[in-house]
Structures are given as C-alpha cells and as structure tokens.
Amino acid sequence: MSSTKPIVYLIQAEDEFSAMQFIASMEKRLGEEGMAILNVQRLDGRNIQWETLHDAVMAIPFLAARRLVIVENPLALVNSDSAQKRLITLLEQVPPSTALVLVEKGLLTEPKEYEKGKRHWLESWVESQPERAYVRQFRLRREAEMVQYIFERARQLGGAFSRPAAERLAEIVAEDSRLAEMEVQKLLNYVNFERAVEISDVEQLCPYFEGAENFALANALREGDGRQALRVLRQMLSDQDALLIFFSVVHQFRQILLAKLALEEGQTPAEAVQTLSRFRISPYPARLAIEQAQKYSLTGLRYLYNRLSETDVAIKSGESDAEVALETLVASLTLRPTSD
User: Fold this and answer.
1) CA-to-CA distance for 67 and 292, rounded, in angstroms?
2) What is the predicted pLDDT for the residue at 286?
3) Position 12 in a domain
4) Tally of domains within the chain
5) How many degrees, rounded to 5, is the angle at CA 158 between CA 153 and CA 162?
6) Element at 136 (helix H, strand E)
7) Which DSSP string do the residues of 32-96 spell out, in sequence order?
8) How far apart are CA 286 and CA 196, in angstroms?
9) What H or E segment, with its residue span, contains residue 314?
C-alpha cells in the first residue's frame, strides 16, 4: 500500500469478523466518537440506486478531514458491462476526502486461481491503481493459521497460551474468528492473566461435547415464548455457571447458523452434514443443528447471532454480569420472534 492514504478500499470478507474489525479500526481513526458518527455512512448495494452511491461518495466531510462510506455487496449494482464501466468511472472520481470501502462477502477469486495470477475485474482495477486503491483479502484461518492467531491474540491482550492449549482451542473454534476471539478472552480472564492457558483450562471451559444438545432454550427463543425461555434458563442456572451457559448458547446457535447457510445454498440435509464436518462438527450434532435450522428464518438467526455478540461485549466490558446479561438477552429476543 502507498504511503498516501488510499481512497478506495476493496475488502474481501471470507472471514467477516476480521474484516469488520478492520473497518471498525478505520472508523476509530476518523477522530472523536461523536464526530466520527457524523462522517460514517453505510450502504448496501442490493437496495440502493446509483445516484445514492454517487451522492454519498461526493459528500463533504462534516468538520473533519475525511468521511467514510462503507458499501456492502457493491457488485449487486453491477449487472451488465455498462454498469461495470459506470462503477469504475465512479471509483476514479471519488475525492480524497472520502474513504470508500467496498465490502464483498467471500473471495472474488478462488485461492487456487488467485495463485495462478488470475483476478476478478474489480481486483484487477484496484491493483492497477496503487496510489488510489487498496485491496485486502480476509481469508478464513485454517488449522495452523488459527493456532498462530490464538498465540498472537493472547500476546496482544497481555496473556499466553501453551501450544497444546492453542491447538485444542483451534480444533474447537475451527474457522470461526469471532468464536476464537470470545474464547481467547474468556480463557485469559479465567487464568487472570497470571499464567499461560493450559489444555485442561480449554477442555474445562469449552465443553463442546459431541452428545445430544439440549435445544429447549433455543426452541423457546425461536417461538418467542419468554416465560418458557426464562424458566429453562433459570433451571440451567441452578446448577451451571452463567458464563458457561452463555458460551454454550453461542456455540449452539453457531452450529444452527452454519446449518441454515448450507440449506439456503440448496444443499440437502446429507450434503449439509458434510459441509458442517469441515467445521469439525460431527454427524450427530450436525443433524440436530440441521433439524433446528429448518425451524428458523435466516434473518431471524442473523438477528439472534448479532444480539449474542452484543451480549458478549456487555459481559466483557463489565456493563453487565453474565446472569443478568443472559436474562436481558432472553427478554429482548422473545419480544421479537426470531422466526420472522
């Protein structure tokens, strides 16, 4: 990347969590939070017009040197050769006072093809504009890469992992960077940053066993049954730690969301089991997750997973203890049925 600030950023978000962290860091660099909010605009290429995008990128920053325009799914606007030319023309006209961030979910070029030198046309344009544009791929971390990430993230936070512990946690989280982040912080807090996290800590605090899952809480949340959800939660709290319950719920809904995404792609349940196996989910829990996934809408699951993320932040920031946060989560989710 050039020493001057790029104007157009092309973000390829196979690992959506890491990509969103990168964009969040860009927002922080805009200045004080109150002013930054006034200079950040988010758009989705699936539901905007060209005029909206043009006006957004040409707008003048408000009492700041720069504004940030984040466009998810920008290629949804490009449905013809003329639209492709129109987008490139617009990218060439974006003023330096705007940082235009184009976020595409997934990779534009398959890794094997990328290594051969092949590029999507948008990647090719960005690479031809080194002074103006910047491209970054956020690929899923796999196996050894996830182990290294766990080591590095622990170091950044002021803690440490033994190699067996990092390898075991990498097996558990598979390619899920968001889950890895949550687990690393949880485990470092558990050892109070006084020693390295050991494999016994991981196995004690990350009990993602292969037995039958208890979907009573998930069912109550899906049906919007607040009374039943709270009843199940309080029964669980009577003999389980609230933080462990929360992370178990996150793990459970992660499996359901992965299953739903596979089904949305048109996969049969048998094919979905194979897909989930790539995330180190064994056939039996995979089949249970697929059964549950058919009871949810994708919109509802994404909403629920976002609320879990918000709850995680509230717990870690000390804004709420785990038990109160869980009850608040249940109450908020049952006010909005997740099957909608």
Assistant:
1) 42
2) 82
3) yes
4) 3
5) 65
6) strand 133-138
7) SHHHHHHTEEEEETTS--HHHHHHHHHPPPSSSS-EEEEEESGGGG--SHHHHHHHHHHHHH--T
8) 32
9) helix 298-316
List the domain range (segments joined by +) for residue 178.
141-206
* pLDDT for res 189: 92
Query: What DSSP element (H or E) covers 10?
Result: strand 8-13
Task: Give the SS3 label for residue 324.
Answer: helix
Q: What pLDDT score was predicted for residue 31?
A: 66
CATH code: domain of residue 53: 3.40.50.300
CB 225 within 8 A of CB 334: yes
Q: Are residues 260 and 294 in the same domain?
A: yes
What pLDDT digit, counting tens, does each position of 122-145 carry? Answer: 999 999 998 899 999 998 887 788
Residue 156: which CATH number? 1.10.8.60
CATH code of the domain containing 255 = 1.20.272.10
Judge whether 55 lies within some domain: yes
Same domain? For 192 and 315 the reply is: no
Contact call for residues 329 and 337 (beta carbons, < 8 A): no
